[in-house]
Amino acid sequence: ILLKDNIQAREPNKDDFIQNTVEVNESNIPDDKVLVRLVDVSVDPYLRGRMSLGKSYIEPFKPNEPILSGCVAKIEKVGKNVTNFAAGDYVAAMLPWQEKAVVSVGKDWVKVDPKMAPLPSFLSLLGMTGLTAFHGLMEIGEPKAGETLVVSAGSGAVGSVVGQIGKILGLRVVGIAGSEDKIKFMVNELKFDAGINYKSPHYKEELAAACPKGVDVYFENVGGEVSDAVWPLLNFKARIPLCGVISAYNKSADIGPRLQIPLLKTSSKMQGFIVFNYADKNPQAIKQLSQWLKEGKIKDKHTVNQGFDKIVPSFLSLFNSNHLGKMVIEISKD
Ligand code: NDP
Fold first, then answer.
1. From the CA of 19, how far away is ligand 1's center (Å)?
2. Distance (Å, rounded) from C-alpha 225 to C-alpha 247?
3. CA-closest residue to ligand 1 atom 31
4. Whose CA is nearest to atom 15 of ligand 1?
5. Average pLDDT for 124-151
6. Residues 198-211: pLDDT tens digits?
7. Which of 40, 95, 100, 129 is the most exposed place for a label (fewest CB within 10 A)?
8. Which pLDDT tens digit goes with each residue over 255-264?
């Protein structure tokens, strides 16, 4: 699957993508390459940023080149100079949206053990989105028991983990999301203290009522009007991990000056971050998240769509979908 052309400030649609058939030479693998078969594909809001041109922490996708995202794949064959992976291994890696591909082994490829957790978990709790939640909350949010944590997109891949970590650490957790099913999921399954629907006509009042002691940590995933209701509730020295601003991804950035006065008045700290900033702390984070998973203290929810043809629609639905937890596309079973 290729990107037809770079997309500017508008919502992407299926016509922005091209699906091609290419011949993969499976019988003759170059010495330094491997043949991989996709098992699970992650679609993520940040991919939208790579579809536009502009300054960023990562290069834009180029027109007519395959789109890459985090994937779990099975290695089917290895070239004779590849020593760190063998046929039959599963890896979590950035790979092209291509059912099978002959590719070089990346420095950041991680061998994953299907006995340790279901394979999609290496794209969610034990992968990029779990690490984003863990590092953003622990490093910037500085959560303390008894405080109030609010998380937007609280039922999604990152938000569902942020809120659950908050509960484990003894905070009051309030999740914000856009449907009643998501509110029920956050409160009934994830055990958040409250879930607030930003589409409710009384959203601002309901959010304020759910945070009677104000907000100490706001984990920002969304921006725009959803977050405008949070700013007046900030406590003195609140912390705001700025993880994402999905409401602006199809527009020009729009956090705006309405944020500066609340930050000033409350001496609060807002800090943007990218999960890769904390890569040196990934081993400890994975150890902790795996332990919580094993102890049943944290749930790793997936919404799984099946089939290669579902990759593009699943990506597009991130901007208005009803998925719960991490959106994953299962390409093949093994
Ligand atoms: P999610 O699983 O949370 O899916 C995105 C959700 O965002 C949707 O389900 C939708 O939920 C909500 N949403 C979409 N459009 C809007 C809108 N206009 N206004 C309000 N809510 C909207 O995705 P992820 O957990 O993967 O990502 C969440 C955030 O984290 C994103 O901003 C992403 O860019 C960021 N991120 C940042 C990383 C980093 O390193 N800094 C790494 C990974 C993710 P709803 O129905 O509630 O509206």
1. 26
2. 9
3. 244
4. 319
5. 98
6. 999 999 999 999 99
7. 100
8. 556 787 788 8
Report the pLDDT averaged over residues 135-144.
Answer: 98
pLDDT greater than 60 at residue 254: no
The amino acid sitting at 47 is L
Q: What is the DSSP string of 269-313?
A: EEEE--GGGGGGGHHHHHHHHHHHHHTTSS---EEEEESGGGHHH
Q: What is the pLDDT of residue 9?
A: 86
CB burial of residue 140 (10 Å; 0-12, 13-18, 19+):
buried
Confidence of residue 54 (pLDDT cuts 50, 70, 90): confident
Residue 318 Cβ < 6 Å to ligand 1: yes
Fold matches, 2-124+301-330 and 128-276: no
Q: How far is the CA of 329 from the centre of ligand 1 (A)?
A: 17
Domain boundaries, the chain: 2-124+301-330, 128-276
Q: How many CA atoms lie within 13 A of 46 on its CB side?
A: 19
Residue 8, pLDDT score: 86
Ligand 1, residues 184, 246, 270, 329: which to mutate, most atoms within 8 A of Cβ? 246
Provide φ and ψ at 207, rounded to 5°: -65, -45
Ligand 1 pocket test target in 52, 129, 158, 320 with most atoms within 8 Å of CB: 158
**Which pLDDT does position 42 carry in this prediction?**
98
pLDDT in the model for residue 322: 85
- Ligand 1 atom closest to the Cα of residue 323 is 9
Among protein residues, the one whose CA lies closest to atom 17 of ligand 1: 247
Average pLDDT over residues 118-127: 97
**H-type alpha helices, 175-243:** 180-184, 203-210, 224-228
Class of domain 128-276: alpha beta
Domain spanning 2-124+301-330: CATH superfamily: Medium-chain alcohol dehydrogenases, catalytic domain (3.90.180.10)
Find the 93 Cα to ligand 1 centroid distance in Å.
21
Which ranges in 13-148 belong to alpha helices (H)? 46-51, 128-135
